[in-house]
Amino acid sequence: MTREITVADLDDLATGAALLGTGGGGDPYIGKLMARGAIERHGSVPLLALDEVPDAFQVVSCGNMGAPTILIEKVPSGEEPELAMRSWEAHTGKRVDAIIPMEAGGVNSMIPLVAAAARRLPVIDADGMGRAFPQLEMETFNVYGVPASPVAIADEHGNTVMLETRSAAFAEWLARGITIRMGGQSSLVEYGMDGATARRVSVPGTMSLAIGIGRVLREARRLRRDPIEALIGFFSGTHYQKARLIGSGKVADIQRSTQNGWAVGTVRIEPFAPGRPPIAIRIQNENLVALQGEQVLAIVPDLICILEADTAEPITTERLRYGQRVNVLAVQVPPIMRTPEALAVFGPAAFGLPHAYRGFD
Amino acid sequence: MTREITVADLDDLATGAALLGTGGGGDPYIGKLMARGAIERHGSVPLLALDEVPDAFQVVSCGNMGAPTILIEKVPSGEEPELAMRSWEAHTGKRVDAIIPMEAGGVNSMIPLVAAAARRLPVIDADGMGRAFPQLEMETFNVYGVPASPVAIADEHGNTVMLETRSAAFAEWLARGITIRMGGQSSLVEYGMDGATARRVSVPGTMSLAIGIGRVLREARRLRRDPIEALIGFFSGTHYQKARLIGSGKVADIQRSTQNGWAVGTVRIEPFAPGRPPIAIRIQNENLVALQGEQVLAIVPDLICILEADTAEPITTERLRYGQRVNVLAVQVPPIMRTPEALAVFGPAAFGLPHAYRGFD
């Protein structure tokens, strides 16, 4: 089933992408403005179901790299994603038929729409992260054997860079250095593959999932229903399946610092229920692990989402404040993200965590 | 007249290139080993006179980027220059007919030979700096309108990067960041142009000039002649024309530090002649200006060469030591490097010096 993403979908998409961002991924707000501008100018964007992508389609992945905070200070011209794509096409001699988002979480839910609208291309209803992750090798595309290279990088001055690297990790390392020199934000096109490959290596349905999350929260608010219950019900009908409320309380302590370009820290939440030990959530851009004493409540790659207690609005790491009343929702990622190969690339060990991955109860 | 560069030329080339390096440019020693290996494996390299380059020849410039000290610790595989060239060719769809050195001073006198031998291509007897400079936009190619882009960059792991930038300054900025992430050394291919353009924008004869400098010093040593007189005589027969001994003395003080990746400092030389004020030479990788009190003895882009007093062996900045007995030779650069356009790119102001350029007496 092919549907269209219109301007009317962008608020829901932004809310859902923020939840899938699990605290990181960049606030989708600026991305939403860019996507709205592009769709108003060029028309709505066809959203192509993953299982309907033709075998021979040329697919590329697209998104932004860089510190989310910089996106607000150094607003993109909006032409970077398209420029990166043109540069990728010129380098490879191939023509792109469809764009797949790198990550459906955070601002990168929006960037593919900007490129797709301008080029009147479809966006595939899928992504390579099923959430947000901080590094470009943390993609199911990489897990299941698609080379990241060639990687095209563009900045707002019209400079482009093309990487041909020996591994996705080298691509990340070089692209990060280039992005820093480009002023902290860049647009990337990478992981070129055919449609048959895209169907095999992608997390399906994540763009419509994000829109659905936004819609569920909006409806729950309108109908004065419990948004957490609504979310749990919604996820149970998707291939994410399982979501649980793993804690509720007040932000009692928040430590944050910037280390090697990451937003690193810990947030401590005092449960409303008396006598329960506090919940500590470790952050590296995204929320990585929720601990209660020694007990692991939930751990990466599963989603740990800190939501405002009343509205279930997702709270990004930089917007966490002392005294906020929050619910913590854990969401299980789909099976394609929980294989041993996937966990080797974006499981707890990839973030230096001492805990083994285990699903939450 | 076409001649061949053989293994027998490399010692003279290394000496001459070190002198043209004016303290920087990287010790040609590692480069010499690489060039020797390449020539022994693949045969000698034709050296093509600039005025004999056919109009339609596809020319590219080639050299290494990075901190010279790192070249010694992180020895290149020797395949980087060729890899950068193949990557440039694949990107542009053009085939290279001849290689022109970026800079005849320092290690970059040797790198083009490595690429040329492996590909059995001629090297053009010319370069874009007529000496050594620290940044890739400081090229006569750039001064006279050749775009630096596309720039191909390769490392010893086989990673390649292709830049398409809006200016040579952006290319320098991005290539420098990439080189740092590549571990501090990389090989570049850039400034693609046709033969007619190369004839217009290059400093002619600089590879044979470097070999000639080395030969003159070797001969002077063998015949126990004054090497400074021999050098001055030799330069008078070239388009550099003028060389002068601007000081002789003992290294009395040397301050050096690494700032933003540059070797920055000042060396103070106490003249042997009593009552003469000390000579201060300011360094930013290369020797930039020689001052005696308020008087400018010589200034960039003219060459300021610190030579061992007895042998006239060039001393690189990192090998300067307290107590060394030295001669300071100034060499005028050719007219193509002294135009207002050229001085805007690599004259005193480009290095933040307060002095206007004037030739020495």
UniProtKB/TrEMBL annotation, chains A, B:
Transmembrane segments: none annotated. Residues 9-164 form the S-Me-THD N-terminal domain. It comes from the Bacteria. Residues 169-358 form the S-Me-THD-like C-terminal domain. It holds the Pfam family S-Me-THD_N. This is DUF917 family protein.
